[in-house]
Request: fold
Amino acid sequence: MMNRRNWLRTAGLAGLAGAAYRGPLPLSASPLGSADQPVRPLGLPRARNIIFFVVDGTGFEDLATANYYSTKVLNRPLLFREIMGRGASGSMLTHSLASVVTDSAAATSAWSTGRKIVNGALSMLPDGRSLTTILELAREAGKATGLVTTTRMTHATPAGWIARVASRDSEDEIAEQYLEFSPEVLLGGGAGHFLAESRQDGRDLLGDFRAKGYDVLRTREDLLASNADRLLGLFAPGTRHLPYEIDRRFQDAPSPSLAEIARKGIQVLEGARNGFVLQVEAGRIDHANHDNDPAGMVWDWMAADEALAVLVEFVDRTPETLLILAADHDTGGGTVYGYGSGYQGSTPAFRTLERQRISLEGFNALMGRDPSLSQIRDGTTKFLGFTPTPDQSERLQRVFRREVRFGHPTSHLGVLNSIHAVLSEIPGGDPDRPNLTFSTGRHTAGLVPIGLYGAGVPRTALGVVDNTEPFGWMAEALGTTFRNPEMTEDEAWRILSEPGVQAEPSFRHPQDD
Reply:
């Protein structure tokens, strides 16, 4: 068993203890409860296939924003909303084992193992015990498995369904565990942790995957042309994720869409003799919210909805399939607020969102470190769809030069947050920019949507469920009663408060959260 202190030092646990922490919380002060929530069986039939669709880093406010954009700007109903109404749906609590605010690692592990763990770890308890994931149970049942994501392939949300590591940052090791497990489908970004030249050990994992019979894909053209039955698709270099949908669609950023990689994953897996379990993640919604980028968030929601259409089409023609829709946590606390007298300016302001044609990430790259005031004015007008005031242009110039940051110092972390903080200020008169703003650049503790769809799923209200419960539903659909060992919050805090253990918050780049 791994030494507890070494495990904690390796994990770099995010948000478990701050500088003011001086010991374990008293039992009476425990904010989360001391045990996992009981699983409530839904009476689900056995499923040949299970698809778990993740909209990462997004909550009910974002769902409302995406719905308004889809219906009022694009003139099409939001499929996510419709599917939530066809089956079982509700709200989900997201806290991790020792924090009211989860990170993606702890959240995805709760789904994949049915157990709360601490932030920063993947499918492993604080004492070093590894947990069994739902994909392992699926493999034991003879099913094929797959992971599809718009983040880099070794990022936390997909990784927690296969990898067991003390720290989500151990991405070289996560890539090795993928090779060992060998799911039929791995499609996402971030080739770096598979390449000999960028791995610390110099190992050529791409060669190892090819030796195991994988077709290794690097471009959209590779994806569309492949007819192989085992795929490793890495569609972004280094540690980069797939581009934001707004950049893919309007700035010709080279990449397959989420709908395309989801479709390819289904095509490979649907021929499996005993069915499959597949996780699909719309991961960059979370990143746009970290960046406080409203159009980036909305367009990745649109990409998620298009991918959902691919999944629903398969579910509707394959009745023995269970589809679960879920968000792991909210990020950013974004809201569309009332504008103008009697809020009559709210819709005109909201509709200006369609004028933005680049992510704030892309806009920042275009501007560089020392743009002139005219470059800022012209670039904002062309790419973001409105003209900044002279004062805003001057403040933006200071932001690009890294001279100042705007926003709450512990909530808005970077240049992109500052860009939004400046440009979200609507001048007087008719609105020329969106009435959408953010409360933070970090995760929040808010409830998030959860839903189930497919033949045999009762049309019912789930109420408020815990994020450990989907594991039980998937286990029920697989026909197993397996349960992982658990740990209480108080037991976790006793480990964290051992002499010599120092668990400090991790202030990683927002896109790594």
